[in-house]
Amino acid sequence: MKFENSLAFAHTLDRQDPLRTYRKSFRIPRHSGRPVIYFTGNSLGLQPVGAAAFVKQELNDWARLGVDGHLHAKRPWLHYHKFFTRNLAKLTGAKPHEVVAMNQLTVNLHLLMVSFYRPTATRFKILSEAGAFSSDMYAIESQLRFHGYDPARAWIELRPRPGEYTLRTDDIVKAIEDNGPSLALVLFSGVQYYTGQFFNIPAITRAAHAVGAVAGFDLAHAVGNVPLNLHDDDVDFAVWCSYKYLNSGPGSVAGAFVHERHGRNFSLPRFAGWWGHEEAERFKMRRGFKAMAGAEGWQVSNFPVLAGAAQLAALEIFNKAGLKPLRRKSILLTGYLEYLLKEMGEKNFCIITPSGADERGCQLSVLMKRKGREVYRKLLKSGVMADWREPDVIRLAPVPLYNTFEEVYRFAKIFRNALKTS
Q: Which H helix or E strand runs over 55?
């Protein structure tokens, strides 16, 4: 599409948007009496209007039924995690028995690394992108130390080529091949939180498997944002949070994927808990853990119902909107933002997120060459909620479920003025 830098053009795109009504499904913060331009869905998604009713239903059932809510609530709490399965499988390109809603992202990462990082005397290294999100870095470092390895020797962090900001897929594959005999695990983000790069998951997975390593992914910035095909891509395991693009509320319940070829491998070591025990025998309270088949066998504790209720409200919206229409709008919305930013030239900033639609989601990371914090503060004062990341990046995430083309156009005007006055 040929973009135009005009409010009239933005209005035309909004009128043609088949998803435009979904904006009304979210509660948008206000600034000086009008809705903010909320470009931080990559940090915390907006609250679905229906979330309060979902949570209230559980509160009412708790008040009315007490412990009997486990069996007789509108959505019985005993198997509450199952209400998420179908939609999470659709969002991640998985089979229903390969996904489960549970815990928090880093907890899930540790639990799955217990099973899938199995170092030997010769094959013990972990390969990841440099500058991964801190929770991933801490998990990798602590897992290595737990197994008795020095991270300086056992952890390979890939950096972009000099003068570049993102990793080339060919370089990732080559690094995997070069370290193949000593590589136990390849652990990457799906979408890199800082640069917004959408990694080539199938290519990375194929390369890992070709050298005998396991392939795992942190999908915190990918799920609900970009198309995923975890089963067909042959990914071994993945984890994600739900409070960013899934709009499930601060600290809400995370999720995990385990490929079906591992789901019935009961010999895999794991840190067991009673909710992962075979469901038919769970309440017999006997010694001897028997894992459930599939991803559910990695559960540890029973499900946090009140937090999960808000996620159900959000997943209902995703199910109605559809992944393909959301992705089409995302590409157009982010593309329009990129066009307007590039029209300003790149004297004071540059976009470090890849330009190709298949290499990014709905985030653009803008590296500020001068007075970045000052520009960021002016955006906030003008009613723009963006995200500052040290040392010099403003992250912008126009989300297709609730952001508009008019907002993108208005943001560009505000950003241009902030640059001129800084």
A: helix 51-65
Rounded to whole angstroms, the Cα distance separating 377 from 83 reads 42
Rg (CA), the chain: 22
From CA 362, how far away is CA 245, in angstroms rounded? 10
d(CA 55, CA 309): 5
In sequence order, which residues have a C-beta less than 8 Å from that of residue 314 and are 6 or more positions away?
A: 45, 48, 51, 242, 246, 247, 248
CB 217 within 8 A of CB 189: yes
Q: Which residues of 62-91 are buried (b: 16+ CB within 10 A; e: fewer)?
A: beeeeeebbeebebbbbbbbebbbebbbbb
pLDDT of residue 31: 95
What CATH number labels 55-318?
3.40.640.10
Q: Mind listing the pLDDT tens digit for each residue in 66-107?
A: 999 999 999 999 999 999 999 999 999 999 999 999 999 999
Structure tokens, 34: 């009008």
Question: Is the pLDDT score of 313 beyond 90?
Answer: yes
pLDDT at 355 over 90: yes
Q: Which amino acid is at 383?
A: G
The domain locations on the chain are 7-48+322-420, 55-318
Residue 422 scores a pLDDT above 90: no
Report pLDDT for 11.
Answer: 98
Could you tell me which of 133, 368, 380 has the C-alpha nearest to residue 244?
133
The CA–CA distances, whole Å, from 15 to 11, 338, 340 equal 6, 21, 19
Can you tell me the distance from the alpha carbon of 21 to that of 34, in angstroms, rounded to the nearest whole number? 18
Q: What is the per-residue pLDDT across 161-199, written as a single tens digit (0 to 9) for each?
A: 999 999 999 999 999 999 999 999 999 999 999 999 999
Category of 395 on φ-ψ map: left (φ > 0), alpha (ψ -120 to 50) or beta: beta
Distance CA 159, CA 152 (A): 15
Reduce the DSSP state of residue 278 to 3 states and report it. Answer: coil
Which pLDDT tens digit goes with each residue over 300-309? Answer: 999 999 999 9
**Contact, 172 vs 160, CB < 8 A?**
no
What dotted CATH number matches 7-48+322-420? Answer: 3.90.1150.10
Residue percentage of the chain with pLDDT more than 70: 100
Cis peptide, bond prior to residue 29, ω within 30 of zero: no
Q: Contact at 8 Å (CB) between 291 and 272?
A: yes
